[in-house]
Amino acid sequence: MKIKVGDNVRVITGTNKGKEGKVLKIFRKDNRVVIDGINIVKKHVKPNRTNETGGILEVEAPIHISNVKVLTKEVKKEEKVKAKEVKKEEKAKAKKTTKKASTKKETKESK
């Protein structure tokens, strides 16, 4: 397995898609990992000696290892570059649409 305890990872599929966190525990036999703050489930607990009140606890549940991607510094840099490219493309499209709209107005006024 390429993922180790302490790695920063991003969920790539499922209800928690896009969230990032740190690997807390790995279950190698089941191919699952527990990630800090991701896949939170509610667990109903009866009162006992350690937890005298009982109640509903929120606990991180394991997620399959194939749904997780290890984050590195290089990946974050690539994403920033892609985001910048997308913004540039959006600005270019916005300029084209404003130019087309202004030329249509000018042609109507000249007629």
CATH class of the largest domain equals Mainly Beta
Question: What is the terminal separation in angstroms?
Answer: 71 Å
Q: Please, what is the average pLDDT?
A: 83
CA-atom Rg in angstroms: 25 Å
Architecture (CATH level 2) name of the largest domain: Roll
- Strand order across the largest sheet: 6-3-2-1-7
Low-pLDDT ranges = none
Number of strands: 7
Oligomer: single chain
Q: How big a fraction of the residues is strand?
A: 25-35%
How many distinct domains?
A: 2
- The 3D shape can be described as elongated
Briefly note the structural class of the backbone.
alpha+beta
Structural write-up:
The protein has 111 residues and is α+β, with helices and mostly antiparallel strands. The chain has two domains: 1-71, SH3 type barrels (Roll), CATH 2.30.30; 73-111. It is 34% helix and 30% strand. It has a five-stranded antiparallel β-sheet with strand order 6-3-2-1-7, with no helix packed on it. The protein has a two-stranded antiparallel ribbon with strand order 4-5. A hairpin with a 4-residue loop joins strand 2 (20-27) and strand 3 (32-35). The longest helix has 38 residues, at 73-110. The radius of gyration is 25 Å and the shape is elongated. It starts with 7 loop residues before the first strand and ends with a helix.
